[in-house]
């Protein structure tokens, strides 16, 4: 019992988080930066933060995550980090030659109050930023928000710095995919392409954090949205922002800066939310849904109806980032499962909590929700009344092991299984994969627990 100190009696806590269900803002900012082609993320703070953020992403993606740091010591902590950042910009462009540097702050540089736009302007005035190269930034103090808000701020910053309206409207649709896996970003692009729609996806980590092993090291892989595409996003016909917390700030910024209308949707996880995404794409681009996508949808509907009896009424506990938590809850409720314990570590606001309550409106019995909550409380709920299935990131495996509950890994981070970088969770195909994982977990348990008499070849 690794979590043997978790007690079933629940006491109200307001000032203490135990076993948090989130991580810090710069991790999300670093991940978003990697979705820009030729970009080197830069951590403006001390080396400890930077090492942690890089290793968190490396452990999830099993790829070397490159970044740079302002390497604060006592001097920078007292007098500010301007000299460090100016020197870093010089060194990075002359040694590593990226197209872009994306600077994010940390708790320390935010507490000092470093003015990053002023430092970038000074670097430009001093001639430290070569012609045709760029530096942009996002403020990501980690004593507020979470890795999701860090991702959202860096994505919005791409709009703030680069998007331009050239006076024309192209037929291109902007797709802001949310804090999802590289495979999900590919899947969003594939669905749009299948419908004959040209899209600009940003950020886009496909090909960056799930690239091939070629035997040749490339510091800046092929993938990622280019600065030119970010510029053109200001002239697109519309934007679909997937996931309210991670994507809507960038979508709304494009609307107010370049008058590109934005529609915010849930992440397209599961049948209903993928339907809404496809419908929004169809309307925005003025195209028809091709037979190939109708076929994918039909396969998902068939699988749901074939296996529905093993899903019906199953109690599920989910821990996840807000956009994922909401979409997964809606998916499970649509399968007649019972998502009964829902927790996220990210502060996502009352509106989000309201959306979660709407998602479980038809789920029978009591549903416990905590926004923001932690995994200690989530575990306590389970100790009081167990569930049939747990869904969450790798940290949930301690609860699954202690309570002997089937467990599906989903979200960030996943440190001990493969697949998330290569197989999507979004779209009809993604839903099919999630369905397979959920059913495997439930039916493996059924096989394990059945007596010899109940043990069946065909379930
Ligand atoms: S919480 Fe703040 S100090 Fe800690 S690693 Fe994150 S940015 Fe650095």
Biggest β-sheet description: 5 strands, parallel
Question: Fraction of residues in helices?
Answer: 40-55%
* Mean pLDDT across residues: 97
Shape: globular
- Count the DSSP helices: 17
- Intertermini distance: 32 Å
Rg: 23 Å
Q: What class do helices, strands and sheet pairing give?
A: alpha/beta
The proportion of strand residues reads: 5-15%
Number of strands: 13
- Identify low-pLDDT runs: none
Helix/strand order = HEHEHHEHHEHEHEHEHEHHEHEHEHEHEH
What is the spatial order of strands in the main beta sheet?
A: 11-10-9-12-13
List the helices and strands and how they pair.
Layout: H1 25-33, E1 39-44, H2 47-61, E2 68-69, H3 74-79, H4 82-95, E3 100-105, H5 107-112, H6 116-125, E4 134-138, H7 147-162, E5 173-176, H8 182-194, E6 199-201, H9 227-232, E7 238-242, H10 244-258, E8 262-265, H11 271-285, H12 291-311, E9 315-319, H13 322-334, E10 338-343, H14 349-359, E11 368-370, H15 375-384, E12 389-392, H16 397-403, E13 407-409, H17 427-449
Helix pairs in contact: 1-2, 1-7, 4-6, 7-10, 12-17, 13-14
The structure holds iron/sulfur cluster.
Residues 24, 26, 49, 52, 106-107, 142 line the site of iron/sulfur cluster (SF4).
Keywords summarizing the entry:
single chain; 459 residues; alpha/beta; 5-stranded parallel β-sheet; 17 helices
């Amino acid at each position: 019992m690794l979590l043997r100190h978790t007690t079933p009696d629940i006491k109200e806590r307001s000032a203490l988080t135990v076993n948090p269900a989130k991580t810090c803002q710069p991790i999300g900012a670093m991940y978003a930066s990697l979705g820009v082609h030729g970009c080197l993320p830069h951590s403006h703070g001390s080396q400890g933060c930077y090492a942690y953020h890089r290793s968190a992403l490396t452990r999830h993606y099993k790829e070397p995550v490159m970044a740079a740091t302002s390497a604060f010591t006592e001097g920078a902590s007292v007098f500010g980090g301007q000299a460090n950042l100016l020197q870093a910009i010089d060194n990075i462009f002359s040694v590593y030659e990226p197209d872009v540097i994306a600077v994010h702050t940390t708790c320390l540089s935010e507490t000092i109050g470093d003015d990053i736009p002023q430092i970038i302007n000074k670097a430009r005035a001093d001639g430290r930023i070569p012609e045709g190269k760029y530096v942009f930034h996002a403020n990501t103090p980690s004593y507020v928000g979470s890795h999701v808000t860090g991702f959202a701020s860096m994505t919005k910053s791409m709009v703030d710095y680069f998007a331009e309206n050239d006076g024309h409207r192209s037929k291109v649709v902007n797709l802001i995919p949310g804090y999802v896996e590289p495979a999900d970003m590919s899947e969003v692009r594939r669905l749009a392409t299948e419908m004959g729609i040209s899209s600009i996806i940003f950020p886009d980590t496909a090909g960056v954090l799930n690239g091939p092993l070629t035997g040749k090291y490339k510091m800046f892989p092929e993938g990622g949205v280019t600065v030119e595409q970010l510029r053109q996003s200001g002239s697109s016909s519309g934007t679909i922002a997937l996931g309210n917390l991670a994507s809507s700030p960038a979508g709304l910024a494009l609307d107010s800066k370049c008058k590109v209308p934005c529609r915010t949707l849930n992440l397209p996880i599961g049948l209903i939310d993928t339907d809404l995404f496809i419908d929004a794409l169809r309307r925005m681009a003025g195209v028809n849904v091709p037979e190939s996508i109708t076929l994918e949808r039909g396969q998902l509907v068939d699988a749901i109806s074939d296996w529905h009896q093993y899903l019906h009424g199953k109690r599920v506990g989910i821990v996840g980032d807000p956009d994922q938590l909401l979409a997964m809850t809606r998916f499970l409720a649509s399968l007649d499962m019972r998502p009964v314990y829902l927790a996220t570590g990210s502060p996502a606001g009352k509106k989000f909590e309201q959306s979660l309550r709407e998602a479980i409106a038809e789920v029978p019995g009591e549903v416990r929700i905590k926004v923001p909550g932690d995994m200690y409380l989530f575990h306590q709920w389970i100790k009081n009344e167990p569930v049939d299935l747990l869904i969450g990131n790798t940290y949930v495996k301690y609860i699954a092991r202690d309570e002997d509950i089937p467990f599906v890994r989903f979200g960030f981070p996943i440190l001990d299984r493969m697949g998330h970088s290569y197989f999507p969770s979004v779209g009809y195909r993604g839903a099919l994969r999630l369905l397979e994982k959920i059913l495997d977990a439930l039916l493996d348990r059924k096989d394990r627990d059945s007596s010899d008499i109940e043990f069946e070849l065909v379930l």
